[in-house]
Fold:
Amino acid sequence: MLRSTLAFSMLVFAAGAAEAADAASYSAKLSRPTTNRFIARDVVWNCGADACLGATENGRPVVLCQSLAKQGGHVDAFLVDGRALPASELERCNALAKPAAAKALAAQ
Structure:
């Protein structure tokens, strides 16, 4: 019984590791750093003083950036697996950014 439970646990762990290996990792630097946690487009963004981090198997980088910008504000840099989003796509991302003034009013 113990062997079968251990074997099943190893199988589940291996499947989870393989699934995680397929996920792209994203990193974003916001103009106004935050320590908030956002869920946008099925990506959990964990933010710290330096960057927001997230991962997903699905999605287009610009769309994921836009969804983060809607909640977190202007994005200064957006990386996909360590590669920077081109300036033109970053500009498209920030077109939907949450205005800083509205964010400041919400904090009051």
